[in-house]
Design a protein that fits this description.
Elements (H helix, E strand, L loop, with lengths): L2 H9 L16 E5 L2 E2 L7 E8 L2 E12 L2 H4 L11 E8 L14 E3 L6 H10 L19 H29 L4 H27 L3 H7 L3 H11 L10 H17 L19 H12 L5 H5 L5 H7 L11 E3 L2 E2 L9 H22 L6 H7 L8 H8 L7 H15 L8 H9 L2
Parallel strand pairs: 4-5, 5-6
Antiparallel strand pairs: 1-3, 2-3, 3-4, 7-8
Length: 425
């Protein structure tokens, strides 16, 4: 038994309307369940409950046992002073507010229908589950409901990603171009070097990039040096020139020396940090309003055009400094641009729209619908259950569904779990 069943019964009016009463035999009539609070504080705000003919308006707290009130130290928390009703599975002890007045307790275990309890237990039955709790019933869930839930989950995912963007924005004093560069650097670092590239990009004053962006050699030296790629031994003329230029820029701008180097191990050559930094250099050569330009793009093809660059000439026959390799162009692939859309462009546009007071995200969803779905074990497992993943918006939403709901057994906070429980009773 979990508290989420109490939340579900209260929120969806699954308690009988006529026979409810407190432990003191006071009649209880629920006029309005209020609004569920998922943050700190009582579980439901602004509820309206009639107790023994007296109408009360305030908050409702829920526990499996009444004694949990004291286990959670609510008696000392002023946020719980206006709780008008304590909804519990088992009323094992009297509970009092900070001022000494007793809080009415509604014990619900005797008011729950057998059908509801059985459906709830079946939902969490693990013996036949291989992926998620509702895998036996997910295929029968209404497509319209499921797709709308995915839209809400995608916005939820964007809200989570926006935290980093707004942190960077505050640190850069509202410099969106600087935030774009940092996010792109993280993206170009991929999973292996993403965290390292992020931290190094945060340590680089973007005004320096603005100053050297019209000088390709200085821009190359700045980024290769700052991201720790010149900390090797090499006698190539190109490398020596970069090293010399970076030493000059270090003295001129007081740059911080890298304390570590990016990782090459486990990466395919085309994803080596040397190649990615060269591509990033060529994106920024001569550009001064790149963020403003990206905010105007509507289609995936337009985004592809904006990122259609390749690594520098030296890298046509190199993957690392000083080591000759088979000659080939090192262009940014379409699949990598898809990742830029997913992890950089769309989160930035989401935050920029919020910054401007625009909460209409249909254009972002439309852009994500043009990007192919990711392929991983979670998405493949969802597809096997009857709801095919059509695009990246849906794959991102399903990742949030699995990580934030399925894996944490938050079935009754999920639109799918709620529908299944309602359908079976």
């Amino acid at each position: 038994m979990r508290e989420d069943l109490l939340y579900f019964m209260w929120k969806h009016n699954k308690l009988p309307t006529k026979q409810l009463c407190t432990g003191n035999k006071e009649s209880v009539t629920i006029k309005s369940p209020g609004f569920q609070n998922k943050l700190a504080g009582p579980d439901f705000f602004n509820a309206q409950v009639e107790i023994n003919g007296q109408l009360w308006a305030g908050n409702v707290e829920m526990h499996l046992k009444s004694s949990d009130w004291y286990a959670h130290h609510h008696e000392t928390d002023e946020n719980y002073n206006n709780v008008i009703l304590h909804v519990v599975w088992e009323d094992d002890i009297a509970v009092f507010r900070k001022d000494g007045t007793r809080i009415p307790a509604l014990e619900v275990q005797h008011f729950v229908s057998h059908e509801l309890l059985k459906s709830y237990q079946n939902l969490f039955e693990k013996s036949k589950v291989t992926f998620i709790n509702c895998e036996r019933d997910l295929g029968g869930v209404d497509n319209f409901l499921f797709e709308n839930w995915l839209h809400r989950l995608y916005i939820e995912r964007m809200e989570e990603k926006s935290k980093l963007v707004f942190e960077l924005l505050e640190a850069s004093k509202n410099d969106w171009e600087a935030v774009l560069f940092i996010m792109l650097a993280k993206n170009f670092g991929s999973k292996v070097n993403g965290s390292y590239f992020l931290e190094r990009a945060k340590q680089l004053d973007f005004s320096i990039i603005r100053k050297v962006s019209n000088s390709p050699q200085q821009l190359e030296a700045l980024l290769f040096g700052h991201f720790g790629l010149l900390e090797v031994e090499c006698n190539d003329t190109y490398f020596i020139q970069l090293k010399k230029e970076y030493d000059y820029l270090t003295r001129k701008f007081g740059l911080s020396a890298p304390s570590s180097k990016p990782n090459f191990f486990g990466l395919r050559p085309h994803n080596f940090p040397t190649i990615r930094i060269s591509q990033l250099v060529n994106i920024y050569k001569g550009k001064h309003q790149f963020f403003a330009h990206l905010m105007t793009l509507k289609t995936k093809e337009q985004v592809f055009d904006a990122f259609q660059v390749e690594a520098g000439t030296y890298w046509e026959d190199h993957f690392t400094f000083g080591k000759i390799s088979k000659k080939s162009k090192k262009r940014i692939s379409k699949s990598f641009i898809d990742l830029i859309i997913l992890n950089t462009l769309v989160p930035l546009r989401f935050c920029y729209a919020k910054h401007l007071g625009n909460e209409d995200h249909e254009d972002l969803i439309a852009l994500m619908a043009q990007v192919e779905s990711e392929q991983n074990s979670i998405i493949k497992n969802f597809d096997k259950l009857g709801h095919e993943t059509k695009n990246a918006m849906e794959s991102q939403a399903k990742l949030t569904l699995y990580q934030s709901y399925c894996a944490k057994n938050k079935c009754l906070q999920c639109a799918v779990g709620t529908q299944l429980l309602n359908r079976n009773i």
